[in-house]
Amino acid sequence: MFERILTIILPVLVIVLIGWLYARHARPDMRATNKLNMDVCVPLLVFSALAAKDFQLAAQWKLMPAAALLVALSGLLSWPLARLAGISPRTLLPPVMFNNCGNMGLPLALLAFGRDGFNAFVVLFVISNLLHFTLGAFIFSSRTSLRSLGKNPIVLATALGLLFGLAGWHLPDWLMGGLKLLGEATIPLMLFALGVRMVDVSFKGWHVGLLGAVLCPLTGLAGAAIAVPLLQLDAGQSAQVILFGALPPAVLNFLMAELYQQEPDRMASIVLIGNLLSLLFVPLGLAFAL
């Protein structure tokens, strides 16, 4: 079991490490690459997974409420703790509620569960991201406008993927193959960008960082413990939800904190420490999942 976990997590860490080492010397500007990834590669990854011929979306519908339950429960559990600790809920709740199911979760799911399990995990990724861009944006700022949501490429790709998956429509193999190939570029790009981002953050405000970093996987695993029996998930779905719950805070939280000017330094600490602690919590989650 330990060897299998290492086989899953080490390739992920290698790419992150390469990004970190490269960024220490070259200091690359990843803005254009990240925008390309979010505008093109991620939407194609989502669409190609949801609309794949061998993926039965209806069979995985329980993963939708499972993801929503984990996100909601994490927020409910962390809200009173934020008040007790004297931390703004707008700072603590997003990184606890919205985890790194993209940069880290997708490649881990592919290595742990294979292509079929990966396609199913995309459902968790989609629901988490939809909630991040809607509920998460509102938590960061109550003045957030959701009118632009319909223009978001990931949201549009999700809607199209769900439509194709539920209607049983399929694109020609040559076209789907090209879309899938470009979408799969998402995974190494995300991991490399995560390594680059880690060069820029610091341990300033590490007390808050440690609290958020620990709460994210703990509340996620607590949510998984409730979701599995409540929704009567099968073995494969249970494993995916447990892995989802064990993931660290999403890097996107730091980008959104900068956008809304919601204590980005504290958010950086939460994200950095959380992803470092993933070396502990992700193997733990994989041990339960496998």
TrEMBL record:
Give the membrane topology, semicolon-separated if more than one.
Multi-pass membrane protein
Q: Which UniProt keywords apply?
A: Cell membrane, Membrane, Transmembrane, Transmembrane helix, Transport
Q: Which residues cross the membrane?
A: 6-23, 64-84, 120-141, 153-171, 177-196, 208-231, 237-256, 268-289
For this protein, the record's Gene3D superfamilies field holds: 1.20.1530.20
- Domain of life of the organism encoding this protein: Bacteria
Predominant location category: membrane
Location(s) in or outside the cell: Cell membrane
Q: What is this protein called?
A: AEC family transporter
